[in-house]
Write a structure and sequence with these properties.
This protein is an alpha/beta fold and 284 residues long. 38% of the residues lie in helices and 21% in strands. It is globular.
Length: 284
């Protein structure tokens, strides 16, 4: 492997980035980050998975409507694999899909088989979770890995989370089992503004990926969108005294803890709270 600079990945290493709509994607922050990269790096789709194998179409229904040629057709919920070459010459594989309903191990096997054929050495899963964080502060993005050598080389944190997991957790685990470099990025989205889009969280994910890849990402209108989003939430909070007070409490807690980039342990705790909000059967 070539020399690393500043805690980023070797410039000649092919990297796979994966994000999935649904349970792993609060505010659509993760998948919109991949869509942004697909657009600005002009990625070409090279493969897709057969949705018949992995999706319950009563859960994720196909969509009917006009296609690019104007003819009506059906779009099926699938996973698309695209390849981009960055301005600095790095090959990046983008995996974007909906979290599958079934056969997760076979699904990961197929994705990683395609990754192997494309020369991937590093797999980065990207997710977003709902957390008790204020919208007025930097969005925390935690970067974790179970590989101690990778943590030391890239300044990542250990993954101490225990509990239910999604397809991003399974894919990361399977990638590591195959001997690939495997890591995960999670953005913490303020739970009181959970509806997508969440451009400030998407922006935070992209900036972390810039650091990891050592590759500047054109941000376009996303910076302005994030500022407009925050201003809109400010306005809504100003109209509700209870929400305003709650946001103030979150700001105080954040500032007192002095954690503009929350620790992996803190994010894990927020993730546990998020899961309990999603599944009352877990308690709490």
């Amino acid at each position: 492997m070539s020399e690393r600079t500043g805690g980023d990945l070797p410039a000649d290493e092919t990297v796979l980035l994966a994000a999935f709509e649904g349970w792993n994607d609060a505010g659509s922050a993760a998948t919109q980050a991949l869509e942004h990269l697909h657009d600005v790096w002009a990625a070409d789709q090279v493969d897709e998975l057969d949705p018949e194998e992995y999706h319950d179409f009563q859960v994720n229904r196909p969509q009917v409507g006009p296609g690019p040629d104007g003819k009506r057709g059906i779009t099926w919920p699938t996973t698309a694999i695209a390849v981009a070459t960055t301005p600095r010459g790095r090959t990046v594989v983008l995996v974007h899909g909906i979290e599958p309903s079934m056969r997760w191990r076979h699904y990961c096997d197929e994705v990683l088989g395609i990754a192997a054929s494309l020369g991937v050495r590093t797999v980065v899963t990207v997710g977003a979770l709902l957390a008790d964080v204020p919208h007025t502060r930097p969005i925390p993005v935690t970067s974790t890995s179970e590989d101690p050598e990778l943590r030391e080389a890239l300044g990542l944190e250990p993954n101490s989370y225990e509990g239910p997991t999604g397809i991003v957790g399974v894919l990361q685990h399977e990638a590591a089992h195959r001997g690939l470099n495997a890591m995960s990025l999670w953005a913490a989205v303020p739970h009181y503004v959970a509806h997508p889009p969440s451009p400030k969280a998407t922006l935070a994910v992209l900036r972390r990926l810039e650091q990891l890849l050592g590759e500047p990402v054109p941000l376009g209108e996303l910076v302005d969108d994030a500022a407009a989003w925050q201003a809109g939430v400010d306005e809504l909070a100003g109209e509700d005294s209870e929400i305003a007070e709650y946001v103030h409490q979150l700001e105080e807690a954040k500032d007192t803890a002095d954690l503009p980039e929350a620790s992996g342990e803190a994010i894990a705790q927020e993730f546990e709270r998020y899961l309990r909000r999603r599944d009352p059967g877990l308690g709490g």
